[in-house]
């Protein structure tokens, strides 16, 4: 209806709307921007009456607030949705996606909307309520029909909103709302009794601890209203956008291929543009409205008091004046700068702009990244799915149907067995947990890098180390490109004074760390050993320093006499040894009495006990030990650009997923496991008594 009126009357027209009466509809970006910036005292979102979600969500909902009250409430809601807090939600998103896609059928078409509804509901429940167990499961069942019923009730005539018994819409809604309030009361009581409340990142915990500027706190009833608002606003809308994204991508195979390649390369720019374009061509909300409180000027028109002004998201997004060839699906418009920022308004604007917009974008980004990583989507020539209004959001009429096949990750060389396979889903075994993996790394991957990459590329490769505030370690110009990796060596080697000592490094890689220690820490002699003959040949050519020798050999069978070294250095290498206890015995044998073993490495959670047992059973005495996950994560952040350029620029396409995994770039399995504690990165100082 709006589209036909717009074609006839332009970007502003008056129309009679059911239950709302006379309304002015606008879509011109300049008019919309003017409306967004108008004082709430002149035009504001309706806080009550037909069409106001505040009627359903309660007086504590942001939909029921206006003016200074709304400004103050939004200030309370900013912390849960800022960048720092948002990062903690990414693990929730990923867990919900992996849980949902585990049962997706292969090779048969299915509607993706229902799975998207389930995973977005699970994500927002955990992020908002911090709920687990029976209460979470009951909320999963209760909230979808409650939210849909709320959206239907608020646009119904007043008589249908009344409680006329359990069979009436109003009666059903009130009964479901009472049960929701009971569950939230339980969660609030549990949260207040939680001794770890201050460390929780869920929205409920944050609202219980936050205060207005005047010291007042939110009542429990208002907290329940606000939590329902957040779930209702962020569940079905995001799920519908994801279903639309799949519907669009299956009809644009070239874009699908580009997105898959980008995921394999660790990128995200095209994916972000695609999300914005999906929200442009298939907005899940057609528009929103403001009620004029006093006579106002809007562009060239004067709007009388009491008039409803509707800004049409769909008309704005479909206008060729705002977007070139507006009806086409073209994410590149957001990469080239040809898109109109003022014309893109899927989240509204002004003081009423959706506070969870960044949350929704991040969730869509994580979900699409994982789907593209895990599945190959079959293109279709089926007609575009029609828009279908579900009471809250506009979704694909057939549910965003798709046919998928699971992808597999290729190993870098034939014969290097890095995969486990279940009935449906191939998975990489946890890093370092099998001797096959460790042998493959030593036998294939490190020599492969030596042959494939240039000398300076592989000079120093480890995950890196950085403190907060930064270390500011003085470096020579040749070391500066490898700063974070050098700092890991520095932290490990400077646990004792190496001046004048005879030092052995086991698993020196390509010698960058060996050269740094020899040049700056001044040992009397330094021997660096590695099992990779190509790497040793490179080191002998690249690092020609007095008293620095490179030797080909095995860490588990050191070719040196007993008690021949004052210190042994081992940096981020022992996870690749098939027999770690044997390596420790060799270290103890080669060290002189009073000698030092300076050691840093990581293990997965399933290896913690075995790792600690091997270290405890070694005759070496622990002088100090630190877990350095935060410092290593900062090192990975610093190294990520360099490593991604190497992986994307130097490796064949088929090897790039493994390259990113190996490099631990942000977003990779390695990085995520370090963040969540599934990997423990430690630095040790041992002494031989």
TrEMBL record:
Cofactor: heme
Positions of the Methyltransferase type domain: 504-598
Keyword terms, alphabetized: Heme, Iron, Metal-binding, Methyltransferase, Transferase
Residues annotated as binding heme: 354
GO biological process, one term: methylation
An MF annotation (GO) of this entry: heme binding
Source species, domain of life: Bacteria
Residues spanning the membrane: none
Sequence similarity: Belongs to the cytochrome P450 family.
Name of the molecule in the record: Methyltransferase type 11 domain-containing protein
Taxonomic placement: Bacteria, Bacillati, Actinomycetota, Actinomycetes, Mycobacteriales
